[in-house]
Amino acid sequence: MISKQRIYEILDGAVRDRASKICEITIISVVVVNVFAVILDSVPEIHYEYKDFFANLELASVIFFTTEYVLRVWSYGAKYRGQPGGPWKGRKEYIFSFYGFIDFVATMPYYLQFFIPGMDLRVLRVLR
Q1: 0.90 exceeded by the pTM?
Q2: d(CA 3, CA 99)
Q3: Is 8 helix (H, G, I), strand (E, B) or coil?
Q4: pLDDT band at residue 110 using 50, 70 and 90 as cut-offs
Q5: What are phi and psi of 84, to 5 degrees?
């Protein structure tokens, strides 16, 4: 089982090793694929033909980015291990950081559609 400290190191890039590089390349690749998907999905003919594919890709991406966000929040607890405030200090630091905010906003449009059905959140998808 991978430790909280090791997950923190991999996701944060705190240690420049093979696992960190693979993680970074994977995240960048998923972002690039999503950018292309949003561009292609905006073309009516392509959307009509491949709408199920784009919906499945979006679901897989949201699951991926939600997992990344949860792992980052959880693992940031290791950053201040043994210090006053401990795990919650690290978690709060990440949640309220610029990147933590971006990661949160990246997945929120997908979940908002469940709470506010019929709301067109494509503009927020582009921002994601």
Answers
A1: no
A2: 23
A3: helix
A4: confident
A5: -60, 135
